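Reading a protein record of the kind used here takes little practice once its layout is understood. Each number in the token line that follows is a code from a learned vocabulary of backbone shapes. One such record is shown here in full, so that the layout can be seen directly:
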Amino acid sequence: MRLLTVVTIGFGISLWVTAVLAEPFPLTPGYYAVTAKYSTSNGQESRDRCVTPDHVASPEAVLNYAFAKKVMPLPGHTIKNYLLQGEKLSYEVETPSSLIHVEGTVSATEFSVVRSNTSKSGKTLPVPITLTLTGKRTGNCKGK
């Protein structure tokens, strides 16, 4: 019984330390010029967006191709293994059909991440699909 208590306390302390050491997402709200490029194409496209304080509270709301003006979590999407150390960021997004690994850098005014998608069905895709998103703050959002 003592061993279980010690293990439980140790595990609880390690979770608390992890939570305390976690850095807040440093991106400053504002208007961002964003480019998106898929590994399967030669071109890139502009995906500019107004990032609000609500977006910054959930990094996946910003670092996603399907950006929405209003932050709404996608059903069945869970963020796992979130890690931010200095400007280096990594986490996974588990969806009903895939696991998306997100890795890159983020500062107060810029971000650059690569999103790699892996199928949960075990089937390999003919071409690995990755999406690179880069963004730079260009000013305040219009009307703000």
